[in-house]
Structures are given as C-alpha cells and as structure tokens.
Amino acid sequence: MESGDSAVRRVAVLAGEGGDRQVGFLPQGLVAPEHIVVRRLVARGRYPHQSLLGTGTVADEEAVWSATVAGVADLAERPVEELSGGQRQRVWITMVLAQETPYLLFDEPTTFLDITHQYELLALFARLPGEGRTIVAVMHDINQACRFADHIVAMAHGVWS
C-alpha cells in the first residue's frame, strides 16, 4: 500500500456512519430542487448537524452565512433555477462549506466560474487548511493546481503518478 492509499482509505472510512459530519462532497452536475431559493439550499448543508425535527439553531444560521465567502449573500432570496452556471456553482460550494466538515472533496470546483471567481475560490481553498480543514479537488488546470495546492497527485490513463 502506498502512503496516498492510506489517506484515501481513511477518508473512505469516514464517509460511513456519521460521515456527513466528517466529509463534505461536491460532485459535478447537481440539480437543485425546483423553486428553492439560495438561502434554503445553502442551509441544507447544515442537515447533518440538526435534530430529527430538522430545526436549525443559531449556530446553524451562523455557519450558513459564515460560509458565504463564496460570494452568494446577495443572492440569498433568488431562486436557484434563475442563476447563471457560475452563480449556481458558488451556491453549491457555499452549501458544502456550511456543512463544516474537516474533509472536503470537490470534483472540478471551478467549473462554470469566471477567472476572478476561480481565483477567489482557490485562494479560499488555500486558507482552509489553516482552519483544520483538508481539501481534495479534482482539477484539470495544472497551473491553478501548482499555484494553490500543497500536494498534487497526477493521473494519466487512470494511473496515479
């Protein structure tokens, strides 16, 4: 087993019971429920921390809006289906950040973002390890990866190098 294998397996184990409080994951191609506004979608990131009745706490509300570093506070009352692709991506990222997990997995998080928002997002990702959070992101832009990542794993034809 290689050292990277060990870390990946630990994260996979964390994704079991209670994993929703340990691992936040943003895959590609998510579709929001119809007619949901941004504030409510972002609040769904807090579900793992809520009681069975689904009631939010002041801590949940603070977590939701402290996660708005992705720049979506001004969109709070807008229906998600009315947003541009980049705005939607920032909303999904904000939802995952609001989950407040120590491990965050992103599949191509800069998709649909303009260059300014790509830079802001990756600068945020670079700061999060200082808050005790680990980011794993699949990216195709090697220049961005080199600029912002602490570690890079490259794959070619399905093989890690």
Provide structural commentary.
This is ABC transporter. It is found in: Cell membrane. InterPro entries: ABC_transporter-like_ATP-bd, P-loop_NTPase, Siderophore_ABC-ATPase. By secondary structure, the protein is α/β, with parallel strands linked by helices. The protein has 6 helices and 5 strands; from the N terminus they run αβαααβαβαββ. It has one domain (19-160): P-loop containing nucleotide triphosphate hydrolases (Rossmann fold, 3-Layer(aba) Sandwich), CATH 3.40.50. A 3-stranded parallel sheet has the order 1-2-3, covered by helices on one side. Strands 4-5 form a two-stranded antiparallel sheet. α3 packs across α4. The longest helix has 14 residues, at 85-98. The two termini are 14 Å apart.
List keywords for this structure.
single chain, 161 residues, alpha/beta, Rossmann fold, 3-stranded parallel sheet, 6 helices, 11% strand, globular, P-loop_NTPase, ATP hydrolysis activity
As laid out across the biggest beta sheet, the strand order is 1-2-3
Q: Which CATH architecture is right? A: 3-Layer(aba) Sandwich
Tell me the CATH topology: Rossmann fold
**Count of alpha/pi helices:** 6
Q: What letter string, H or E per element, gives the SSE order?
A: HEHHHEHEHEE
Structural class: alpha/beta
Separation of the first and last Cα atoms: 14 Å
